[in-house]
Amino acid sequence: MKNYLLFLTFFTFFISQAQLSNKHWLPPIHARQQSIVEDHYVYISTAETTPFLVNVTYGNGQAVNGSPFLIDVNTPRTIQIGSVQPSRMFLAINDLNTVESDKGLILEGPKDFYVSFRMRSQNHAETVISKGRPGIGTAFRLGSLPNGEDYAPRNFVASVMATENNTTINLSDYNTGVVFTTNSAPITADSQSFMLNAGQTIVFSGYTNTLANLNGFIGALLTSDKPVAVITGNALAGMAGYNEGQDFTLDQIVGADKIGNEYIFIRGNGNNGNELPLLIAHEDNTQIFVNGNSTSITTLNAGDYYLVPSSNYQGTNNKNMYVTSSKPIYAYQILAGNSTYATSGLNFIPPLSCFFQNSVNLPEINKIGNVPYNAELMVLTYATATVTINGNPATALPEPVLGNTEWVTYRISGFSGNVQITSTGPLAVGVFGYSEENINGDPGTVGYAGYYSGFGSTPEDTPVIVCSSKTTDLFEAIEGNPGTGGTWTVPAGGAPLTGNGNVFDPNINIAGEYIYEFTKDCNSSPTTIPVKVNVTIEQANNAGTSAIKNTCKNATPFDMFPLLGTGVTTGGTWSLTGLNRSGIFNPAIDVSGTYTYTIPASGACPEQSSTVVVTNNDIPTLPTTSITDLEVCDNAIDGNDSNGETTFNLTTKTTEALNGQTGVVVTYHLLENDAKADINAITSYSGPNRIIYVRLENTTTTCYNTTSFNVVVNPLPVIDNDVILKQCDDDIDAISDFNLTEANILISNQNNITFKYYLSQANAQNNTNPILNETNYTSPNGGVVWARIENENGCIRTAKVNLVVSATQIPATFQKIILVECDDYIDTSDPDNDGIDYFDLNKATNDSVIGILAQFPSSTNLIVTYYESQADALAELNAIDTTIPEGYRNIVPNLQHIWVRIDSNVNNDCVGLGQYVDLVVNPLPDFDIVPSKVLCVQPGTGDGNFAIDATPATPGNYTYTWTPTNPETTAGEENAIFNASENGVYKVIVTNEDTTCFKEDETEIIISSAPQSVQAELVSEVFTSGLSTIQAIVIGGFGTYEYSLDLIEWQNSPIFTNLENNIYTIYVRDMNGCGMKNSNPVTTISYPNYFTPNGDSYHDIWNITGLTTEFEAKIHIFDRYGKLIKQINPYGNGWDGKFNGQEMPSSDYWFKIEYKEDGVQKEFKSHFSLKR
Predict the structure, then answer these.
(1) Which of 101, 248, 310, 421 has its CA at 20 to 30 Å from residue 194's CA atom?
(2) What per-residue confidence (pLDDT) applies to 453?
(3) CA 782/CA 778 separation, integer angstroms
(4) Three-state SS sequence of 929-978
């Protein structure tokens, strides 16, 4: 038999019953091995022709992505929930036996629809069909496949979801050896209890590595004090050995109140070992009968199970089995997709009922996710009924049921996609799908099936609570599947039902007992069946009357609740676009919109809501920056131009206040409250500085905003309106150039004022034709100009400026003052050859004999200033700063002329102006000596010298001062050339005796030489194990040396290590470049202390290499016991580790070498290692 798991082939089979309901609960499940879980989906379909929305949420109410989903008869929906474990529907081990709030699925809509949960992976697949409201209950018997033996993925699993808060569940009546798996310690208790709220879930699972877990959980009792939904089965299970395969076997079951005692099973494609009805008794002494046999096949007590042998299936067109019981039983069907146990499935079977629905709408019958299969339909209906598929009569032949002539079964093929099946009798439909054979002719690898029928279809007396604000169709409210065309009996004194004759209107009809009677033919004579509907009316809440509210964004916050009217129910919630919020509207932060007041659903009454549509109007916008001050210069309108009062036209600010807005009016007010109240508006104001308040009002919404600005009276400049400006005459023509700005300080000493000059007072007042060259204005003595003085506020006055030309008082015999400096090196920006230096001009001012002030009888009130040009001196611009500590730095190299101006600080008279000072920079002696010099001397004697020459390039009268003193002199003076023959620093100062300018320089002499001779010696002993060491000994010389064996790589150490056998010469050179010597040759002799003859080309041969022929050497190799192994020639190939062609073992080996040294015969013995 093939192992379909190992060869990645499978034929998974699933079959279940789907139930129409407007609400479904799907608790999650758990797989023992996470790797077997792949993509899983929820399928939704309906028979309704009018589209409606289905909300899909997790247990905690969180919406599934994309919810709600719109469906109708032609538009089923497929929703992928996950693709791995863990997910919201497949829990990891750490979530077992714990209450979970956000797992599982809840689906709800206004009309009935089918729900199936489908899963597939590479080797497995299954579907779980939701039973909806009829599936919830308070007592359940749990079923699963009895596992044949332990295998890694096998388990049992059961899960529960609560439908109401404060639900207590209890799990009991299982084998006492059953062990429940958790993420921590296993649970071995004989019963377990938990409390769940609505939407919360719990999952129980046990692994087959405990013997009792193979089948000890079958028949376990799960009870609750409020309705719950339950899924049970295995993920995975296999009834044979592990190598026969295993599969998902799961389904949702119903409560004990919905089970019965009459069932029909339709066989799958399995063998006799995996095609077995599994029956569980809910009460003691329950007898089981098969195919109408009057003798029971077995008797069961509560919780016992029985596997009905597959030999009881019968039929030709298809095979079926009829099972009855003396008391209600849980009926599960074990079946398979083919003859292997790898395709096992488990489905939960409904009891027969003539109240099955007459049509079924199936979504995507040939798909799980995106994977397509071949599909067949399995149909159970009355023998007298006509079956149609998508509107066409069925062509397949029916199979009678042995023991029950009322029912037949069908197998119908050739359909795919969405399918509608109808019958003239009660109907249950299954989908049977499978894949084709593979290319090797092996059976298809996937099979599946699912029944769509009804649990709890028998009509039952139904209590109905009707909300006073809405109508209710009482026929649709009846639990079960009543027949149409019946009649209603209303309570005494009550009005008939309205609409289609089934609608209860609280405004017309009264509460009480309504009886619906209809005729049903259950393959017998027609029977009249009454169903009682007990109606109570629940008073609806009042959400008020929707309202409209207009407001402005600067209005005070207000409560929206009173806007809904009187008698409104309190305790509701406010929302905007679905988001909860307060019922207080704050115009400053809240937006326009439809604000909804909602009272949640209560009992039968749906949620109630009303709205307040708020329009939050914008207020007029204010300028992005504050309104600028309205400033006016003080004037004489009131007879006084300096009292700080005048008249303002406020309307000049209207355009600025509007800032481009339209539909807004602007008014002006003296008080802020007047602006807000829109009273006492003004257009002008007379008086001193103050605040003016502005109101901007929207002419449509009347929303307003306020702001303010200042009215400001600016003062006029304070001036002397008639002044005298004097200038020196630089010759005797009584005409000079004036810097008119020198009059500024004479006119006013106020800060932040500006001056302009004009030829007339009218031009000055009108700011026309200003004098452009006001710093170089030429005028004769007695000229007049007018000044315009303007302060920072734009307020002006004018002043008269009288121009006076003064004659100089410097005598004609005055000799020019010459200041002299040497061209010294200051820094990189002031080198010693640029003709630039620093001068103290105060010497020219204060010299008691030739100084400027010495030319005047009294210099107490005179001020001397220096300029670089005549124009600057006349204009009194860019005066040279004589307070700088280092002095003035000339801008003309070598010789610069300086202009001098002498003024009186009493009456501003100019008493002197001329080019009275020259600045002279003398050059330094121009010589340069090298910074340093290596002097290579004789290696033995140290003889040698170097001439240091300090003679300037420019001839002149120079003296030289050397450190150390130059022993060579001329006429008692040290010579310019110093012949140096020793290490050291030599300094010289060269002085120009004519200018006294001097320059200092220095050089360093470094004495060095090549070695006188070099001797090489062997440091390590002859025949040292490993590598050798040699060293160089330098004899004589004055240098610092480095050493090399190849004239390429040089080192500071004279010692060379790790040398192989060879003849070496050591080269020694002076590091200052004064020469090189080489040593005598030296021979190194050593031997290797191991070798590894393993054929990898590394250390494969042992020999002593590098010996010269003068040694006449012979080598003998012995083993550790003294046996001669090999005699080798050191000048030949050496030993390869073999003796007589055989490899010698790893060990120590001895050698003896016989050689001659200086003609004397010698020998040396030692040992080495052979390593393999």
Answers:
(1) 248
(2) 64
(3) 12
(4) CCCEEEEECCCCCCCCCEEEECCCCCCCCEEEEEECCCCCEECCEECCEE
Structure tokens given for 118: 């489908």
| Residues contacting 883, CB < 8 A, separation 6+ | none
| Helix and strand numbers, DSSP H then E, in the chain | 8, 89
Look-up of token digits 């709800």: 108
Beta partners for residue 1126, in sequence order: 1117
* C-beta atoms surrounding 178 within 10 Å: 22
Residue type, 733: D
Among 80, 61, 218, 58, which Cα is nearest to 144's? 218
* CA–CA distances in Å: residue 501 to residues 112, 147, 561, 664: 21, 55, 40, 63
Rounded CA-CA distance 876/902 in Å is 11
Are the C-beta atoms of residues 543 and 568 closer than 8 Å to each other?
Answer: yes
The C-alpha atoms of residue 869 and residue 872 are separated, in whole angstroms, by 5
| H or E stretch at 872 | helix 870-875
Read off the pLDDT band of 942 (50, 70, 90): confident
Task: Compute, in degrees rounded to 10, the torsion defined by CA atoms 515, 518, 522, 524.
Answer: 110
Residue 293's Cβ-side half-sphere holds a number of Cα atoms within 13 Å equal to 12
Cα 423 to Cα 976: distance, rounded to the nearest angstrom: 136
What φ, ψ does residue 855 adopt, rounded to 5°? -85, -5
Distance CA 766, CA 220 (A): 112
| CB 574 within 8 Å of CB 551 | no
**Dihedral angle, C-alpha 413, 419, 422, 426, nearest 10 °:** 80
Cα 233 from Cα 124, distance rounded (Å): 15
CA-to-CA distance for 610 and 460, rounded, in angstroms? 38
Residue 379's nearest CA partner among 362, 402, 404, 403 is 362
Given a contact cutoff of 8 angstroms between Cβ atoms, the answer to whether 178 and 221 are in contact is no
- Determine if residue 657 is left, alpha or beta; phi over 0 gives left, psi from -120 to 50 gives alpha, anything else beta: alpha
Cα distance between residue 137 and residue 169, in whole Å: 11
Instruction: For residue 686, count other CB atoms closer than 10 A to its CB.
Output: 11
Residue 1009 in 3-state DSSP?
A: coil
If pLDDT is split at 50, 70 and 90, which confidence band does 908 have?
low
Distance CA 156, CA 174 (A): 12
Q: In what order do the strands lie in the sheet with 796-807?
A: 722-729, 796-807, 784-791, 753-758
Residues 350, 455 contacting (CB under 8 angstroms): yes
Q: Are 546 and 530 in contact (CB under 8 A)?
A: no
Kindly report, residue by residue over 20-68, the tens digit of the pLDDT.
889 999 999 999 999 999 999 999 999 899 999 999 999 999 999 999 9
For 546-592, the pLDDT digits (tens) are 999 999 999 999 999 999 999 999 999 999 998 999 999 999 999 99
- 817: Cβ contacts below 8 Å, ≥ 6 apart: 844, 847, 850, 851, 852, 916, 917, 918
> pTM higher than 0.90 for the full model?
no
Q: How far apart are the first and last CA of the chain?
A: 53
d(CA 835, CA 895): 8
What is the DSSP code (8-state) at residue 314?
B
- DSSP 3-state helix, strand, coil percentages of the chain (rounded to 5)? 5, 45, 45
Contact criterion met (CB below 8 Å) for 895 and 904: no
Strand runs labelled E in 293-403: 298-300, 305-307, 320-336, 344-348, 359-362, 367-368, 371-372, 374-382, 387-389, 392-393, 399-401
How many angstroms separate the CA atoms of 858 and 613, rounded? 96
In 3D space, the residue among 109, 129, 334, 309 whose CA is nearest the CA of residue 234 turns out to be 334
Non-local CB neighbours of 388 within 8 Å, separated by 6+ positions: 394, 421, 422, 423
With vertex at residue 260, the alpha carbon angle to CA 256 and CA 266, rounded to the nearest 5 degrees, is: 115
